[in-house]
Specification:
Largest sheet: none
Structural class: mainly alpha
Number of strands: 0
Oligomer: single chain
Shape: globular
Number of helices: 9
Strand content: under 5%
Helix content: over 70%
């Protein structure tokens, strides 16, 4: 601890919100280890700024913004992205649980191919269920930019997948996919 700094609020916040923040980080980067690194870095930056963040009374939004900006920085450098093997694309028939899991994995692979800001906007809007205004605040852009990023991302997914992506997105699919 540094020079009498009160960290009890930060420790309480980090303990309570880390699982949700980890899920968000995982959805952005697509790998558990990278998501852990991303969350660790974001929490470290939040700890350093805790006095300001605590006074602003919106710590979670601050951490989500740090996670988003850090992930986008990583994508720009592309140093952490390697090749990812991929199986053939399965049929979309939902005959049972196994097929449902396969289609989710397929969607997840396609989601990982989107541009970083498109992926972040889609994850924030459809997985985190944030409003356009909340998403714009986290991404530090206008509501119109959020709308165009989501629209463009969904269009790309529809073109590649040939299905209505909104049927496959949302909290239900994300939570099941993360809980493996």
């Amino acid at each position: 601890m540094r020079s009498g700094r009160d960290t009890s609020g930060f420790v309480e916040f980090a303990g309570a919100r880390s699982p949700a923040l980890y899920r968000y980080a995982y959805l952005l980067v697509g790998e558990r280890g990278l998501a852990e690194d991303l969350l660790q870095e974001a929490l470290t930056k939040t700890y350093v700024a805790w006095g300001r963040v605590q006074r602003a009374d919106n710590a979670e939004a601050y951490v989500r913004k740090v996670i988003t900006n850090t992930a986008i920085g990583w994508w720009r450098r592309k140093a952490w992205q390697g090749e990812r093997p991929r199986d053939d694309v399965p049929e979309l028939e939902h005959l049972g649980h196994a097929e449902d899991v396969t289609s989710r994995a397929w969607l997840w692979d396609e989601l990982q191919k989107l541009a970083p800001r498109q992926r972040a906007a889609i994850v924030l809007r459809y997985y985190e269920d944030l409003t356009e205004a909340q998403t714009a605040e986290i991404l530090d852009c206008s509501v119109g930019t959020v709308k165009s990023q989501v629209s463009d991302g969904l269009k790309r997914l529809r073109e590649r997948l040939g299905v209505d992506v909104l049927q496959l997105t949302g909290p239900r699919i994300g939570r099941v996919a993360i809980a493996e």
